[in-house]
Each structure stands twice: as C-alpha cells, then as structure tokens.
C-alpha cells in the first residue's frame, strides 16, 4: 500500500497515557477479531465443530493421541504437526478449514461488534494509524461481519487463517498484515484476547496488548508477554489516540 507523503515522513510520537502499550505511538495497529473486535465465538457450536475436526483428522491419518483439545487451536497445532507429510498435511488443513468456516458461518448472523468498538474505531480515520485485522477465523467471515457492521473500510488489510500456512501463535499473519500495510513489525502494535495472540506478537518482534473478555485472563496475558492488559479496544484506542 502506497502511503501518503505525510505518513511516510512521520515519526512515531509520544502518546499521552499510553505508557504501558508502548512509549511511542505505533504507525501500524493490528487487531485480533473474535473477542477483541466482535463476538463471533459465543455463537459457534465449537464442541460439534471439534468432533467433526477430530473425525476428519483421524480419517486423514493423524493419530488420536496427537489431536488434543480445542477447535481453532487444534487447527493451529495441525498446521505444524509432523504426523503427516507436507502434501497430506496441506490436504488435511484444507478440509479442516472448510469445517471451521461452516461452523463459523452458522454463528455469523448474530455476531456483532463488542460494546463501544464501533465508535472507538472511528478515530482511526483521523489518527494516521494504519490498521489491519489478523484473525484465526476465516477471512471471508471476518470481512462479512466487519462490512455488515460498517467498519471494514477502516482497515487496510484483513488477514485470516486461509492467508497463511501457520496461524497464530505463529507470527505469519502479523507479518503478512505489516507487508500489506506497507510497514515493518517494529512499527506495529498488536492487540488480542488470547495467549496465542501474545505469542504471535512476540515471535513477530512487535509489542502486544492484551484485552480482557476472551479466552485468557489478565495474568495469563501478562505472562505470555502483554505490555499491558486493558478492558477492551475502546480503552486501547483512547490511550493511543489521546491528543
């Protein structure tokens, strides 16, 4: 993405009240989606989804003992699993992604932005920050929810699990978002609700802020590397965009 001249020439500046997220205002702001921007996950039948994934991976040749808990986390583990050859792993991941998207699509209709997020995001347009969403959900689902909620245009990129071979906690999605925004990881800040988000940011070489209300509590987020833990995206943007 070609940046306006003003933004290319800009230098990071101190952000009032933003000492914990980082001493300097980042040029790139990367945000997780589910439980960070919107509530999709509480409307998805994750237990049924996991059963279908376990069945699919079993038929693909993955030993039952290697599967473990979760649905999206299971998909992430299988992305780096040595239990399948690379071609078989790629085929298994394509099928697993289809299963995940089917269940996510079922839960998409009632999904909404979290309280205060829509209003807070309006500040991005006048801030000079370049923003992207980096999600372990399907890019198609994320884009549809953001579009319906009338905030998709505020993000220069949306990266979903289909865009990378290794989803979070690997850094691939964050690094891809930086490239699509035309910036570098050291210019970025990532915010998410999960310890996997913190691990991905750490691996990508950028600071992370934890937001509450998702899968991981404040202590777990700090232990995973969060520079700060805040109630949500509105609180984060209020600090970053303070005059």
Summarize the structure.
By secondary structure, the protein is an alpha/beta fold. The chain has helices at residues 5-9, 46-59, 72-79, 86-108, 117-121, 124-127, 139-148, 172-181, 195-204, 218-223, 233-240; strands spanning 28-31, 38-39, 112-113, 130-134, 157-159, 188-192, 208-211, 228-230.
What characteristics describe this protein?
single chain, 243 residues, alpha/beta, six-stranded parallel beta sheet, two-stranded antiparallel sheet, 11 helices, globular, disordered N terminus
Q: Mind explaining what this structure looks like?
A:
By secondary structure, the chain is α/β, with parallel strands linked by helices. The chain contains 11 helices and 8 strands. It has helices at residues 5-9, 46-59, 72-79, 86-108, 117-121, 124-127, 139-148, 172-181, 195-204, 218-223, 233-240, and strands at 28-31, 38-39, 112-113, 130-134, 157-159, 188-192, 208-211, 228-230. The strands form 2 sheets. It has a 6-stranded parallel sheet, sandwiched between helices. A two-stranded antiparallel sheet has the order 2-3. α10 links the parallel β7 and β8. α2 runs antiparallel to α4 and α3 packs antiparallel against α4. It is globular, with a radius of gyration of 18 Å. The two termini are 27 Å apart. The model is unreliable at 1-23 (pLDDT under 50).
